[in-house]
Amino acid sequence: MKKLVKYIITDILRSRIMIAYTVVLLVISFSVFSIEDNPAKGILSLLNIILFIVPLVSIIFSTIYIYNSNEFIELLVSQPLQRKSIWLSMFTGLAVSLSLAFFAGAGIAILLYAWSMTGLIMLGCGVLLSIVFAAIAMLASVKIRDKAKGIGTAILLWLYFSMLFDTLVLFLLFQFSDYPIEKGMVALSFLNPIDLSRVLILLRIDVSAMMGYTGAVFQSFFGSEGGMMIALAIMITWIAVPLSISTIRFNNKDL
Amino acid sequence: MISLQNISKQFGRFKVLTDVSFSCNKGECIALIGPNGSGKTTIIKSILGMVIPDSGTITFKGKSIANDYNYRSDIGYMPQMGRYPENMSIGQVLGMMKDIRKIPENLLDEDLIKSFGINKLLDKRMGTLSGGTRQKVSACLAFMFGSQALIMDEPSAGLDPVSSEILREKILVEKEKNKLVIITSHILSELDDLITEVIYMQDGRMLFQKSLHALRKDTGEEKLSRAIARVMRQQDESDGLQAARVNTSELRN
Predict the structure, then answer these.
(1) Which sign, positive or negative, has the C-alpha torsion B24, B29, B33, B38?
(2) Nearest residue on chain B to A17, judged by CA atoms?
């Protein structure tokens, strides 16, 4: 299995899309940090870009890669290999190469210009988001046979996590603004890995002072070490659940 | 060596295989023949564990293949359409398969790699190869590990005449080594002196399993293509006859 992962990673890292993704991240991150002289401001600008691009590229690239590897996966299944290890190798290959691309593209600039706890958390969030969306992509592509439908679903899922979910939260917020829903908001942020990352990073920057009472509740929850651990656990759940469902599906799938 | 007992498979509402049973032994070279959509590829995929049958059992060397994967180390498979990760080179694909199979270098069968001239293309990326060259790589992979059973799905599709002759020679050599070879093909003329048995499929059912000798005797035709054509015609006639019978009985009522 280890060797299979190695071959898959070299294949992915050589693809043009992956190289372009790394270069784009590199250009964006270095230009953001050189425009802003205050690293905290730079982090804030970079945050929005990263939360937009990383999930998009991760989910769409992974979906397309799995569909394009259909015949290759068939060939691997005809070899003396367990289906589970084939599927997990594909996932590991995707997760590692997406994380590597993110690290090379945005990580270096963050470490150079914003060497702080906030910078490190942002780095961790970027890597985790890459893996989460690779796992979600694997689930989408194992459930849907048709390539066009599968890629469409991937785009819709991304749209939901990065835009529709926020609209829904805002709607709920206004509807129930008369009630004490601050704690509910914390729970609600667990339902979206992108929001969770955003909250985690925003709380470390001074702007959190402007978020009012909800911000204070968030601060008291995520500000502590225990809260950070819970956030990490939630992110890992976001990886583990789609991955294990897709593995079970793949084990019984007719290729 | 491989035996199927009452295999049935349904994709959604569509019945692909209905109650297929046959068995094949070492030293045989079996042609799986039938019209498009008759379930040939599904049978091959079930043997390889890619499709999981709804009912029935498949055994390989006497052991059921359900929930097993090690048995596949004795099977070489050449798919109908081989596609590989685009940015891997041929050398990497071959290396990866060697890593998977874990067979010592001196036991590898690299005849085809030499005779197809693949060893000169080792640095080429899979994405830049033509369909025929990819097919050659698939063939090399199927034969490389000296497997006891060889399963080929339309092996000569996309190969030029010279290469398909090389492949044919190779299959003959392997057959002589007392291996089991299963081939599906639409080009019946090239199967003539290759095969020993014919399994004929239609609409997901196995119509017959006969040795080539018996088939020739029954139909009175020397060429496999003519013999199969005759069988298909007989099938149509009997279908027609049945339809006619139904019609007349309806008229009587």
Answers:
(1) positive
(2) B87
Does CATH place domain B2-252 in 3.40.50.1820?
A: no
Rg of chain A, C-alpha, whole Å: 19
Question: B15, B48, B145: which to substitute to probe chain A, counting the most A Cβ within 10 Å?
Answer: B48
Query: pLDDT (tens digit, 9 = 90+) per residue, B105-139?
Result: 888 888 899 999 998 999 999 989 998 999 999 99
CA distance A25 to A10: 20
The type of residue at A198 is: R
Q: What span, in angstroms and rounded, lies between the C-alpha atoms of A194 and B220?
A: 73
First to last CA, chain A: 20
The complex's ipTM? 0.86
**CA torsion through residues A71, A74, A80, A81, sign:** positive
Cβ pair B69:A80 closer than 8 A: yes
Phi, psi (deg, nearest 5) at residue B13: -95, -10
Count: domains in chain A: 1
SS3 A74: helix
Print the domain residue range for A51. Answer: 2-251
Whether residue A80 contacts residue B72, with contact meaning beta carbons closer than 8 Å, is answered with yes
H runs (alpha helix) in B69-211: 90-101, 111-115, 131-144, 161-176
d(CA B142, CA B112): 10
Q: CB of A2 within 8 Å of any CB in chain B?
A: no
pLDDT at B253 (0 to 100): 57
CA-based nearest residue to A112, from A198, A48, A200, A33: A33
8 Å CB contact of A254 and B92: no
Which tens digit of pLDDT belongs to each residue from A181-191?
777 888 888 89
Q: Is A77 on the interface with B (CB under 8 A)?
A: yes
Measured in angstroms, the CA of B74 and the nearest CA of chain A are apart by 9
Q: Two tokens at B75?
A: 């099977």
Two structure tokens written together for B145: 């590990």
Residues in chain A, how many?
Answer: 255
Q: What is the pLDDT of residue A100?
A: 96
User: Is some CB atom of chain B closer than 8 A to the CB atom of A241?
Assistant: no
Distance, in Å, from the CA atom of A169 to the CA atom of A162, rounded to the nearest integer, reads 12
Q: Assign B241 to helix, strand or coil.
A: helix
Radius of gyration, alpha carbons of chain B: 20
Domain ranges for chain B, please list them: 2-252
**Is the CB of residue B198 less than 8 Å from the CB of residue B209?**
yes
Residue B90 phi/psi, 5-degree rounding, is -55, -45
